[in-house]
Specification:
Elements (H helix, E strand, L loop, with lengths): L1 E7 L5 E2 L5 H10 L13 E6 L3 E6 L1 H10 L3 E9 L7 E3 L3 E4 L5 E4 L3 H16 L10 H8 L1
Parallel strand pairs: 2-4, 3-5
Antiparallel strand pairs: 1-5, 3-4, 6-7, 7-8
């Protein structure tokens, strides 16, 4: 779902992937009390529920600079709800498998895949109804719209 939920830069688990060291340095110089990060056209953040992870797909460098300086606000542009997957898929440490018959869906063959599985299973724990108060209610409202 598309949305526009504002949050302070260090309020959520925001995964960034800045790749240009020159842009990191210039943004560190330019993001300060007089130029606080604002939601901008190039910022695109996806909140993954119930994994409680926000993945940046645009605005990596400016958001990294704001995080380092602990200044500014940013926003979530999309929410993806993976909670229905937990009925059908589990991660066994080596593969994603179907819950009902243990058929392999995706074999994990690298560290990124392994950690995706670990985060997926953390989401399973967070998705338990006894943990419902863990989540920001504004996110839950957007998911349930």
């Amino acid at each position: 779902k598309t949305c526009d939920i504002t949050f302070t830069i260090n309020e959520l688990n925001l995964l960034l992937n800045p790749w240009n060291e020159d842009r990191i340095i210039s943004n560190l110089k330019n993001i300060n009390r007089n130029n606080i990060l604002k939601p901008h056209y190039n910022i695109e953040n996806y909140y993954l529920y119930p994994l409680d992870i926000t993945v940046c797909c645009g605005g990596n460098h400016s958001q990294l600079s704001a995080k380092i300086q602990n200044q500014g606000t940013t926003h979530i542009t999309h929410i993806h709800d993976f909670s229905e997957l937990y009925k059908h898929v589990t991660f066994n440490g080596k593969s994603f498998v179907e819950s009902n018959n243990k058929n392999e869906v995706i074999r994990v063959n690298n560290e990124v895949g392994y950690f995706a599985g670990v985060f997926f299973e953390i989401g399973r724990i967070l998705n338990d109804p006894k943990n419902k108060d863990y989540f920001n209610q504004e996110f839950i409202g957007k998911i349930n719209e």
